[in-house]
Amino acid sequence: MTATRNPTDWRSDAMRRRIARRYAAERRFKLAGLLAVLLSAAFLAFLLVTMMGNGLRGFTRTEIAVKVDFPASPLLLDPNAITDQALANANLPMVTGEVVKKALGADAEEWVSPTAWTALRDAIKADPKILSRTETVRLPASTAIDLAAKGKGSSEAEAAVDRLNKAGVLSTGFNMGFLTASDGTDPTQVGIWGAFKGSLLTMLVTLALSFPVGVATAVYLEEYARKNWMTDIIEVSINNLAAVPSIIFGLLGLSIFLNVLHLPRSASLVGGMTLALMTMPVIVIAGRNAIKSVPPSIRDAALGIGASPVQVVFHHVLPLALPGILTGTIIGMARALGETAPLLMIGMRAFIATPPGGIVDPATVLPVQIFLWSDEVSKGFVEKTSAAIIVLLIFLLAMNGLAIYLRNKFERRW
Amino acid sequence: MTGPAILLLLAGLGAIAWVSARARAMRLQTAARASGRRDAVHSLPGYHGWYVALWTLVPAGIFLAVWANVAPGLVMQDVLSSPAAQSLPADDFSRSAVLGEARAIATGNQAGAFNPLSQGLVEPYKDAIGKYGIAGAALALVLAFAGGAYAFTRVRPDFRARTRVERLVMATLLIASLLAIITTLGIVASLLWESFRFFSMVSPVDFLFGVKWSPQSAALGYGNDDAFGAVPLFWGTIFIGAIIAMVVAIPLGLMSAIYLTQYASPTVRKWMKPTLEMLAGVPTVVYGYFAALTIAPALRDFAVKIGIHGASSESALAAGLVMGVMIIPFVSSMADDSIAAVPQSMRDGSLAMGATTSETIRRVLIPAALPGVVGGVLLAVSRAIGETMIVVMAAGLAANLTLNPFASVTTVTTQIVQLLTGDQEFDSAKTLAAFALGLVLFIVTLLLNIVALRVVKKYREAYE
Questions:
Q1: Interval B110-151: pLDDT, tens
Q2: Tally of structural domains, chain B
Q3: Is residue A31 part of a domain?
Q4: In this structure, are A157 and A233 located in the same domain?
Q5: Angle B158-B159-B162 (CA atoms, 0-180°, nearest 5)?
Q6: How many CB contacts within 8 angstroms connect chain A with chain B?
Q7: pTM attached to this predicted model
Q8: Predicted ipTM?
Q9: In this predicted model, what pLDDT tens digit does every residue of B339-377 receive, in sequence order?
Q10: Is residue A17 domain-resident?
Q11: Which of residues 262-301 of B touch A (CB under 8 A)?
Q12: Rounded alpha-carbon distances, angstroms, from residue A390 to A308, A387, B229, B383
């Protein structure tokens, strides 16, 4: 005889407590999941807000309005013969110092940026007639004043800012120089144009090398390769390359491209080649998935009406797979654009004060510029670093947005 | 003749070859069709065009590529045999300096000579460069014409131009795909070669098991013994990448994946998933800057406040925390995939027995998906230990063997960057050590990936 078991009394206190406990555990678990999501998102938000908070000031500069009495200044210029040569001979840096002293006091020369004279030059160039009258010119402030006006300066600079504020001559303007200048030693004068151009050239080299090779490899592996040991080796190599740490590619670039092939150091060419090796596996993997998703009926139909295997692929399969391949390519390029470590290995961390003219000139790229500025001691570089990060993030966001747009617009479900 | 001009000329010749061959093939086609022999035409006219154009361009192009490598040697030989070269200094260094200057002047890259000797060599240089330039261009053009003419004579209705062209296309595709193998071989060869040179100076046992890392002292001439013990580096890498980062990334990544796949409404999922994936898209240099600027000082102040001794502003914790955040999307997407791969029937069965959702997840889904999750975690670890910029910017350079997360430790990747961005003498143990570290890193990440992929694959097969 087996003992008969009483049916569970679900209404008993013990059971109610048990169910309540289980439901509480359920709620806690759900809450933990929600917290994990929110915490991750909060970290992203914190990062972006910090960068914005520091970086937006990097796009502005403090300007000091200086009343310049041109006829009384030591400037020897003929208003009717303003040429670049004449302006270069006029010793504008000295004149600028004099007019600033005259307008704001003896110690004021330190308050304007060492390149403030270019503002004076541009003003004269724009309208030579101001040479015969008194005119207010806005001169960029020096780093110390700039920092103090943004609330992060030393005490003496703060005092100077107080005086300037009382005189009502301080103002804030958009720092065009940040977008048009290159690296420098004075944080008020640096810009990202040089690094940006270097990034552009490097990306061009990367794209020109990795896209054709990546697509060709994807086509070969997906459409033509027979299953044999060589195909296996190729597949294993590509999957491994996709997982190799990026710094290893830098070591490869250093020892092969620089030490064996003797290509120029810190050039966009070498940087682009190194990044192309990194990007190629990404394009191959994305390309294979895109080609795989083209239905076999397309191939069969094309073969059936007499197309050759090469015609099938190049006339039918590739055009249909192209959106997918392009999406993968853009994502791979975005990753390459943000890459720093391999480029440090091949010497792209040099101080480059002039934008590169071609792919063999010494260059630097945006992420490396960010890294270099982050190492600077001067406080003024904090906002510049963050501002450069904002520019980089905008570009990455735009590229990823383009990839998503392409995918949504051209993706076909068969 | 200059390089671009020759290339332009060749491109023009190729275009002419394409057009004329295509036109000829078209005439032949019309003639063949007019006489009613339709099947006598094999290839479309375009393929004949390509065939002839390729014959025009490819041999000449290959020749030019070879010539570009051979010509400088020939030029140098010519210059050295000129009378002006007899007065060159004997030692190699000043000799090549003079020759280099003369070449720069001859090619117009430099205006005047610093060294009077090089001025005398400018003329021979110019002559030799001109001579071989013209010779190369002429030979290339002859090859282009010969190739084009040979191919042009083969344009007939029954000639299988398409097959030939497609054979070349296939060969190109094959060569492109071999590039992946070549890259892998290049990595392995360069790492092995430089590491081999390193291990001829420092014993591998000292390197792998030594506990003192001070390459600077080796560079200063205190000898290589006892300076290249990499254990503190390995520990630092594991501490930051495999312990601290994973303590952050595994719970957050796993719980995010569970919440987004099992609990969240489609709208929340649609917005939160890309948001979390943005964490993986932020460049590592940005994370590094963020860790160094914001997280590390805050952590140091916190450690000082609670009275921890030896808190550094370059703490392992700051680098590990930020790295963990970077890895979250990685772990979460791997977990997402493996939970989705668990058959729906198992989930339904558990729920039908009266288990709550969380009980189903904890007792059924996660145990079933565990191999996949473990594989994902291994991949994440391999990602984390190979990560460079965060640790370069936020972790320190001091090679400490410590368990204190607030202290400074250094990692393999940090030291690679540190060793290779200073001076670049390629025979010192200091620079070569970077390649030995790279080799270790390469092998470890490779093994982790192989194991992870095998685990994931085995597990996928279990449910198919």
A1: 666 667 777 777 777 778 888 888 888 888 889 998 988 898
A2: 2
A3: no
A4: no
A5: 120
A6: 238
A7: 0.86
A8: 0.87
A9: 888 889 999 999 999 999 999 999 999 998 888 899 889
A10: no
A11: 262-264, 272, 275-276, 278-279, 281-290, 292-294
A12: 50, 5, 40, 25
